[in-house]
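Hello again, I could really use a second opinion on something today. My current little project is about how a certain protein chain folds up. You're getting the sequence in one-letter code plus the fold written as tokens. Here's the protein in full, and shout if anything looks odd to you:
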Amino acid sequence: GYTMIVAESALGRMTRKSPVGAFRSFAKGKKVGWLSFGGWINAIIPVLIVPYYSVIGGWVMKYFSVFLTGGVHAAAKDDYFTNFIGGTFEPLGWFFLFIAITAIIVLCGVEKGIEKVSKVMMPILVILTVFIAVYGLTLDGARDGLVYYVKPHMSDVSVKTILAAMGQLFYSMSLAMGIMVTYGSYMKKDNNLESSVRQIEIFDTAIAFLAGLMIIPAVFVFSGGDTSTLNAGPGLMFMTLPKVFESMKLGGFIGCLFFVMVFFAALTSAISLMETIVSIFQDKFHWTRKTTCLFVTALSLLLGVPSSLGFGPLAFISWMGLSILDIMDFISNSVLMPIVAIFTCIFVGYIIKPKTIADEVKITNGKFKGEKLFTVMIKWVAPIFLVLILASSVASAMGWFVI
């Protein structure tokens, strides 16, 4: 993750362009124009992610509204979630609302929109996470859940576990989506790039630990220690956790805080993804920000409707048992992201050379403490593991083995 963030951020800051422009500018100079293809795949990924990600963001807003209005008992029913996403107009309505909020913030620009919103949302996000985690640890039996969470279970660790954890890096650290290249293009030359990446690593890990601390002990208490209830994906957030909140004292209030926290997290991610798309189209067509935002919003709405209806009217459309939303997630996360990351490693490691990135990092204070590690990682270690991630993700989706 460190290696990829340094490479992507530096590429953006060097070129002052979105992923397509960044790859192309170097590819032309090195007479390897075919590698600019990596920039185009970078561009495709956020275009695919924003629509279905916003569908899920709409689900989060729906659950926040339910808990806010005292509907904790209704949300805890077994069929509540499936009935909701199986509808037509209500899921679409929440999806449209989430997209609209995201677009308005992006339309306001980087400083007036994204930066101001993030400065408010991120501290609130951390405070809510800590509060819910601490509250969960006061529940009877939470101590056993805490031990289960922090105590290593080496018998459960395998190659597949490690590959799954590395695959999680893409979403957790916003890798291979064009986000880091785009935000890197906004960075000033006097910003210490290496220090900024270290901060991302630390905060990403800390928030991930807090998120687990918030969820795992509480679910453990609710299940009476049955670890089979610690499932992943929508089932955990929209089916298991509402039952957990229902069983708590002040569960309605805690559930409301939880879903507003998840909403903030989803919104900040959606903003980053949409900003990347806007930057790409602006670089390519030289449109105004307003025109580009309106176009990207319309495109996202158009592409997101099938994902929203994929559990209802369009449920008959599937591939290997995957819904439309799951297919979009598989293509973007399991296939295209590793491919983009591999392209980036080849591009930096063997075409423009790691020294080009190192020189960009050193601009601030003349130092790049991790230069040797970065060089070895980008040329040898990262590409090998990225190929393994790609192979394991595809194999898991095909049912050859389960991660």
